């Protein structure tokens, strides 16, 4: 029997297990360890949703590294407003650095477009994109996603850092909105 949960006014059903999520993170971390051998990357965690993913990636990364945080927002309730705003910016110089963006989920790609603008303005040497979840049918941008965890159809999900109006971030597995 599926155990449903209720957050605010919506009902959610189990969708992706914690085990599957951990496996996806292991795979991403392994590739990062290979690709950044002998380097000192800066992880750029996109708040709020990616705090849990970011911490799990960082715990598995073996080289020297830094982590910085940026807070961007486009979602209201269960919909993207299509308008990405910077809520907490970057105050450190990233000039000449190798950056790895850590995203919870890539949907339309609007957030990545804004990050691309910010990172180019900061004159980073290069950046790569790592995302735990990805909705390919919604993606409208051209940026290559270098490390993707789990692809999903156009469902609204919560858990593992992702919220519905502030709730659900603490769930260690992922739930989708029940239709
Ligand atoms: P994009 O800018 O790619 O359209 O959307 C990216 C951001 O929208 C994500 O970082 C996340 O904060 C939010 N988002 C997209 N899809 C979902 C979803 O299914 N559930 C939740 N909770 N947030 C989502
Ligand atoms: Mg996000």
CATH-defined topology = Rossmann fold
CATH architectural designation: 3-Layer(aba) Sandwich
Query: What is the arithmetic mean of pLDDT?
Result: 94
Amino-to-carboxy terminus distance: 17 Å
Question: Which hetero compounds are present in the coordinates?
Answer: guanosine-5'-monophosphate, magnesium ion
Main sheet specs = 6 strands, mixed
| Strand order in space, largest sheet | 5-4-3-6-7-8
Helix-strand sequence = EEHEHEEEHEEEE
Number of strands: 10
Helix/strand/pairing class, anyone? alpha/beta
Q: Give the count of structural domains.
A: 1
Give structural notes.
With 179 residues, the protein is an alpha/beta fold. The protein has 3 helices and 10 strands; from the N terminus they run ββαβαβββαββββ. It has helices at residues 18-35, 51-60, 110-121, and strands at 5-7, 10-16, 42-47, 66-76, 79-88, 98-106, 126-134, 147-151, 157-158, 174-177. α1 crosses α2. The site of guanosine-5'-monophosphate has 19 residues, from β4, β6, α3 and β9.
In short:
This protein is of the alpha/beta class and 179 residues long. 22% of the residues lie in helices and 37% in strands. It binds guanosine-5'-monophosphate (5GP) and magnesium ion.
């Amino acid at each position: 029997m599926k155990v449903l949960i209720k957050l605010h006014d919506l009902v959610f059903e189990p969708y992706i297990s914690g085990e599957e999520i951990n496996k996806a993170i292991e795979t991403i971390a392994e590739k990062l360890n290979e690709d950044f051998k002998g380097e000192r990357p800066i992880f750029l965690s996109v708040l709020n949703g990616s705090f849990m993913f970011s911490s799990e990636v960082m715990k598995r990364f073996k080289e020297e590294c830094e982590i910085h945080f940026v807070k961007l927002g486009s979602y209201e309730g269960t919909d993207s407003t299509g308008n990405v705003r910077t809520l907490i910016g970057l105050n450190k110089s990233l000039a000449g650095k190798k950056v790895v963006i850590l995203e919870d989920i890539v949907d339309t790609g609007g957030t990545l477009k804004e990050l691309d603008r910010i990172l180019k303005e900061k004159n980073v040497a290069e950046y790569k994109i790592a995302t735990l979840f990805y909705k390919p049918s919604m993606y409208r941008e051209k940026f290559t996603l270098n490390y993707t965890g789990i692809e999903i159809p156009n469902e609204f999900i919560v858990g593992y850092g992702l919220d519905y109006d502030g709730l659900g971030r603490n769930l260690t597995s992922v739930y989708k909105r029940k239709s």
